[in-house]
Amino acid sequence: MTQDDDFLTGRIARIPVPDHDADWERLTTQARIAMTRAYVPYSDYPVGAAALLEDGSVISGCNVENASYGLTLCAECTMIGALQMAGGGKIVAFTCVNRQGEYITPCGRCRQLLLEFSAETMHVRTAQGATTLDALLPQSFGPRDLEINTMETR
Ligand SMILES: O=c1ccn([C@H]2C[C@H](O)[C@@H](CO)O2)c(=O)[nH]1
């Protein structure tokens, strides 16, 4: 097993925030793999999301649509559910891609979902490059305002 395989399966500790294109590329690979699991009979727009957690593990998700269109779960939603089911954790880096492998930025609701499980320095890779969740969701209201530690709630 190569170091890349270890990264993809979340078995090795990583630096807190990807500094290098190669680190983002590995995370994006996980998002692309997740995208292939999407259930998108209505939009035909598959999305995959992947997050690197503080402990070095990687969690991913795909969008899951519904005949009642508005009930669609974005890839970020299923990823956050998977994160909690896997024992919780804080996200230090996140990325999201479409079928073409292009970076897309999370919708408004999903920015708030991500905030709930974010490390304070959480970075997001967008088509414009790496940025912070704070930049995508300025003046936010989240668990830190309620002095809730997301790791202590389970
Ligand atoms: O960040 C995003 C943006 C869109 N979608 C999904 C929702 C819907 O299934 C499809 C088209 O909007 O893309 C996501 O999963 N994540």
TrEMBL record:
Gene Ontology MF term list: cytidine deaminase activity; zinc ion binding
Active site: E76
Domain CMP/dCMP-type deaminase as annotated: residue spans: 22-144
Binding sites annotated in the UniProt record for Zn(2+): C74, C107, C110
Any GO BP annotation: nucleobase-containing small molecule metabolic process
GO cellular component: cytosol
Functional summary from the UniProt entry: This enzyme scavenges exogenous and endogenous cytidine and 2'-deoxycytidine for UMP synthesis.
Principal EC category: hydrolase
Keywords: Hydrolase, Metal-binding, Zinc
Listed name of the protein: Cytidine deaminase
Similarity comment text for this entry: Belongs to the cytidine and deoxycytidylate deaminase family.
Residues involved in substrate binding: N63, V64, E65, N66, A67, S68, Y69
CDD domains, alphabetized: cytidine_deaminase
Reactions it catalyzes: 2'-deoxycytidine + H2O + H(+) = 2'-deoxyuridine + NH4(+); cytidine + H2O + H(+) = uridine + NH4(+)
Cross-referenced NCBIfam families: cyt_deam_tetra, PRK05578.1
Pfam families linked to this entry: dCMP_cyt_deam_1
Cofactor(s) required for function per UniProt: Zn(2+)
EC number: 3.5.4.5
PROSITE patterns tied to this protein: CYT_DCMP_DEAMINASES_2
